[in-house]
Design a protein that fits this description.
The chain has 13 helices and 6 strands. It is mainly α. The longest helix is centred in the last third of the chain and has 31 residues. The two termini are 45 Å apart.
């Protein structure tokens, strides 16, 4: 049973607030039942393509130069496994757990749109992986294949850390072995490999991490500016919303509103209006942010 505060995936597009929550720490996710139904229907379509005589790229054929080579049904699961292993290379430091966690949630949300053809077992496996707090080890650099594909393949290999600690400890090793035994047994599929590799979830996670860190720094800058204005006993008149709305910059008006709200009304009413130069400087504190 899902936790009351679990993040529901598939019922609506993810919001920035949802993604920030994923970035900030481990989360519990729950797949929406309707989304799982769409995944099941798409998987049925893919199964029919696999059984048909017509070639379906990456489903009943090979990849790249083998796009027109039909793969025997008994070898298709192995094909999907091998496409992951063939791209699973990397060097350098590992991506931070927060980046990998974001990637997993973004990947699962993407698959739940119901257009990839993956099985419901694979979707459920990713759900359990996230809820268990397992983060695959993903090197930050790769030179042999496109970095995005390589990073996704490393995520699919499930060489995991648990809660930021290496799987070298006995407890983590036991958990890792259990998950390694389950990984392909539970998500055995004839088309999941390509769907897992394709996408830009790692790049999106890296971009989101940059955004969230910048927002944190920006919030600190706004608070510092407001404290400076308050320490100078400056008037809050330059932060009148009417002044800033004239320029039509919503961000500037919102920052000015924060500055004004940080000035106690009773104290600001007793302040002497500052000199013209001081008014300009304090007004610019909002406009430059």
């Amino acid at each position: 049973m899902a936790e009351p505060d679990s993040l529901k995936l598939g019922s609506r597009p993810l919001r920035l607030a949802d993604l920030r929550r994923v970035y900030e720490g481990p989360v519990s996710v729950q797949i929406d039942a309707a989304a799982l139904g769409a995944v099941r229907e798409a998987h049925a379509v893919t199964a029919r393509l696999a059984a048909a005589d017509a070639p379906a790229y990456g489903i009943n054929t090979g990849f790249g130069l083998l796009a027109n080579t039909r793969i025997p049904a008994a070898q298709r699961t192995l094909l999907q496994r091998n496409i992951i292993l063939s791209h699973s290379s990397g060097v350098g430091p590992l991506l931070d757990d927060a980046i990998v966690r974001l990637t997993l949630v973004l990947k699962l949300a993407s698959l739940l749109q119901g257009f990839s053809g993956v099985s419901t077992e694979l979707a459920r496996f990713l759900e359990r992986l996230i809820n268990a707090g397992l983060c695959p080890c993903v090197p930050a650099q790769d030179r042999s294949v496109p970095p995005e594909i390589s990073r996704h393949s490393r995520i699919c290999r499930w060489r995991c850390w648990v809660s930021g600690r290496s799987a070298a400890t006995a407890r983590c090793c036991r958990r890792r072995k259990r998950w390694r035994r389950k990984r392909w047994h539970r998500s055995r599929s004839t088309e999941g490999g390509l769907a897992l590799l394709n996408g830009t979830q790692v790049s999106t996670a890296l971009a989101l991490a940059g955004l969230f860190e910048i927002e944190t720094v920006f919030a600190g800058a706004v608070v510092s500016g407001a404290l400076s204005v308050d320490a100078l006993l400056a008037s809050d008149a330059p932060f009148d919303s009417r002044i800033h709305h004239l320029r039509g910059h919503d961000g500037q008006a919102r920052v000015a509103q924060v500055y004004a709200s940080c000035s106690p009304a009773a104290r600001s009413a007793n302040r002497t209006a500052p000199a013209r130069g001081c008014r300009i400087r304090t007004r610019c504190a909002a406009s430059r942010r």
